[in-house]
């Protein structure tokens, strides 16, 4: 190899080195995050059911139940003005019953609605590579929030859907999720703060979430949680209208 070719090869190695280092750093961060959460132990439960309530100040706005089944099924069921509403994903199709739209039968979700629902589809960490989720994770830097330093991991979906996750550098737990409007990473649609982590045997989970949209905030509280009770696949299937 002559000197010019050697210089070109070395130059290319130097150019690629930062990307390799960042990828290695991301792998280490994710490994520690999954260990802190107890991801393997949570997945072994196969199903999880949570009774939740949403609070606006001191007023309760709604109650609902979230049921998840590994690897990637979810159904959210509640009552709105004495009418049942549902958001669900059966591993293939995402569907909803939304009576506030004037339609009281099941309909397929839009791609945007589906993307938002899939943020919550997994058992355990939202950064885990659950089956059926086509997403790319990138370590984009660090950020201070509430006087603590956090890693910032960006999740990108093929549709141009961007979400940032802030992981506490000491605990490796998710502190905040930042959801952007459509494909615009300059405009935030919503932020969710994870609060009140509790240790449940071999794993840890947040029992409170603060949803921030513009200047308004609501709190979601987990009142009860049950692991491993089972859930038939038919529960998640879209009904025939």
Automatic annotation (TrEMBL):
Domain of life from the UniProt record: Bacteria
Span of the signal peptide: 1-23
UniProt keyword terms in alphabetical order: Signal
Cited Gene3D superfamilies: Lipoprotein localisation LolA/LolB/LppX
Protein's UniProt name: Outer membrane lipoprotein-sorting protein
Organism, as annotated: Reichenbachiella carrageenanivorans
């Amino acid at each position: 190899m002559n000197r010019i070719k050697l210089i070109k090869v070395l130059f290319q190695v130097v150019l690629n080195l930062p990307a390799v280092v960042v990828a290695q750093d991301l792998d280490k961060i994710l490994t520690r995050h999954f260990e802190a959460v107890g991801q393997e132990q949570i997945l072994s439960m196969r199903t999880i059911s949570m009774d939740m309530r949403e609070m606006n100040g001191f007023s309760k706005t709604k109650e609902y139940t979230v049921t998840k089944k590994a690897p990637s099924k979810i159904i959210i069921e509640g009552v709105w003005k004495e009418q049942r509403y549902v958001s669900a994903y059966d591993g293939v199709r995402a569907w909803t019953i939304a009576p506030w739209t004037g339609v009281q039968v099941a309909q397929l979700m839009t791609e945007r609605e589906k993307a938002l629902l899939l943020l919550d589809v997994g058992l355990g960490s939202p950064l885990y590579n659950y089956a059926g989720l086509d997403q790319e994770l990138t370590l984009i830097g660090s950020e201070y929030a509430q006087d603590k330093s956090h890693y910032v991991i960006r999740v990108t979906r093929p549709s141009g859907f961007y979400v940032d996750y802030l992981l506490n550098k000491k605990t490796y737990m998710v502190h905040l999720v930042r959801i952007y409007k459509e494909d615009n990473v300059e405009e935030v649609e919503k932020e969710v703060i994870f609060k009140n982590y509790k240790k449940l045997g071999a794993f840890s989970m947040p029992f409170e979430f603060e949803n921030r949209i513009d200047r308004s905030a609501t709190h979601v509280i987990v009142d009860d949680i049950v692991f491993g009770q089972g859930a038939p696949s038919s529960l998640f299937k879209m009904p025939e209208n």
